[in-house]
Specification:
heterodimer; A: 170 residues; mainly alpha; 7 helices; 70% helix; globular; B: 287 residues; alpha+beta; Thrombin, subunit H; 6-stranded antiparallel barrel; 6-stranded antiparallel beta sheet; 5 helices; 41% helix
């Protein structure tokens, strides 16, 4: 197998950079200024898609660390984002083990289950063990828009994968 | 039937424990580690608090640097636009100067009137509150991170316990209240904004000095709760901090009521760049 050159390595690390960048920068996917209830969770889409399609680009250790950084920046209890990210990762791994060929529709359906579990865990832990109050309607809207936008990002990431990344080495 | 159950358990076990390639750690071990960290943090062990405080300072600085491209890009656009509109801007500035001149005259008039009214009033509490406002116990801080989370509304400022900041201290911009300190590190602090769902501020308003609690809704406009029975809220009434909690300076302006019974804040919480922290003496850290 040919050794990937530097450009390929950079393109292969794109999803990981994006995940870290979203965790630590001010760039957010909370677009309340456009539409009052509009927010979605892009890191979860990134994790689900890339663990499903090409697990070699996102290590679980990086996912855990990105979650911790996100908690520090957001001010939520340490470890809660890591947990929800890892739950998504677990579902994605499971789907990858169980299926040979996936379609956008099957990925969308399994993503729904992963997303519900991840957000349920996030909400239950915060509600029962922390003093922070969060609105369940906001979480519901966030879940809805994340699910709704999944196919769009699925197409974008698929295009990125086919055009910019080296052949599958997983 | 037993075959499909075996399939499930094999696939699940593999997903949970699989390592290799980029996956240096199994998901199970990381989930256990994340749960361990979560409970240590939630139950507030001292070592974890200190560790978190240190991590916060480091991450906030890195995050500030990481956010600089997104912060600089809109400014580049603005400076280009202003460069092309210099003449227009000059005309506008001339008008602004004229306005300021007239405001200056108004200010002189109001200052004189204020002096006369003070002589009449002889209100000790007013003088006390002015002493707090005019004292040097104010720290100017820069907003490091303004990440607009859908669930938590807070900002990070670049001053911490080193500058004397403690939990509970009020934060304002242009003398309008914007929130309070909820987390302190050595070099940075977190400010809980008035719009956050966890924010509760005792306020007073109207000619009868009606008392209420300003409650964040997680949206742009907080609402007033615990109003007197049968109270009809009118729009365009100024809302002030009542200072009943002993934290906020009485009379600090917050916002105005609107026709929906919500409060329009004088300061847009999404547009904060510099804020002031009032170093009021608190008998105990509060949150």
């Amino acid at each position: 197998m040919a050794k990937p050159n530097l450009i390929n390595k950079i393109f292969n690390s794109g999803p990981l950079f994006l995940l870290y960048f979203l965790s630590m920068s001010e760039v957010d996917t909370n677009l309340e200024k456009i539409f009052e209830i509009f927010s979605f969770n892009l890191p979860i889409i990134i994790i689900y898609f890339w663990i499903l399609k090409r697990p070699s680009v996102l290590g679980t250790g990086h996912i855990f660390l990105a979650g911790l950084i996100n908690d520090v920046v957001m001010g939520s209890p340490l470890g809660i984002s890591s947990l929800s990210y890892l739950v998504v990762c677990l579902f994605s791994n499971y789907v990858r083990n169980k299926s040979v060929n996936t379609t956008i529709a099957s990925d969308w359906f399994t993503f729904l289950i992963a997303l519900i579990f991840a957000n349920l865990l996030f909400f239950l832990l915060l509600n029962n063990f922390s003093e922070i109050i969060i609105s369940y309607t906001k979480i519901s809207y966030n879940t809805f828009f994340t699910l709704f936008l999944f196919p769009i990002f699925w197409l974008i990431f698929s295009l990125y994968q086919s055009n910019f990344m080296s052949s599958q080495d997983a | 039937m037993s075959v499909s159950r075996d399939d499930f358990s094999i696939a699940f076990r593999s997903a949970l424990l699989q390592r290799g390639g980029a996956q240096k750690f199994s998901i199970l071990s990381l989930i256990i580690l994340a749960l361990f960290i979560f409970f240590l943090d939630v139950y507030g062990f001292k070592a974890v608090k200190m560790g978190r405080s240190f991590i916060n300072d480091v991450v906030f600085r890195v995050s500030y640097i990481a956010s600089s491209p997104s912060r600089l890009m809109p400014n580049v656009g603005k400076s280009l636009a202003s460069h092309f509109n210099l003449k227009e801007e000059n005309e506008k500035l001339k008008k602004v100067i004229e306005n300021y001149k007239s405001l200056d005259l108004n200010l002189e008039y109001l200052t004189n009137e204020n002096k006369n009214l003070r002589k009449v009033l002889d209100a000790e509490n007013v003088i006390n509150s002015e002493n707090i406002v005019n004292s040097k116990n104010i720290v100017l801080a820069k907003v490091l991170i303004d990440k607009n989370s859908p669930f938590l509304k807070s900002i990070i400022i670049n001053k911490g316990t080193k500058s004397g900041i403690r939990k509970g201290m009020p934060v304002s911009q242009d003398n309008y209240l914007v929130g309070r300190i909820v987390e302190t590190n050595y070099l940075s602090s977190r400010v809980l904004l008035l719009t956050d769902l966890n924010s509760r501020i005792p306020v007073t308003f109207d000619s009868n000095s009606t008392q209420a609690i300003l409650t964040g809704q997680g949206t742009k406009n907080p609402s007033l709760e615990y109003l007197p029975e049968d109270y009809e809220l009118k729009d365009d009434i100024n809302i002030f901090a009542s200072g009943k909690d002993g934290i906020f300076v009485p009379g600090t302006l917050i916002g105005k009521t609107d026709e929906n019974g919500k409060v329009n804040l004088f300061v847009d919480p999404n547009q904060l760049s510099f804020v002031t922290v009032n170093l009021v003496s608190l008998s105990k850290e509060r949150f």
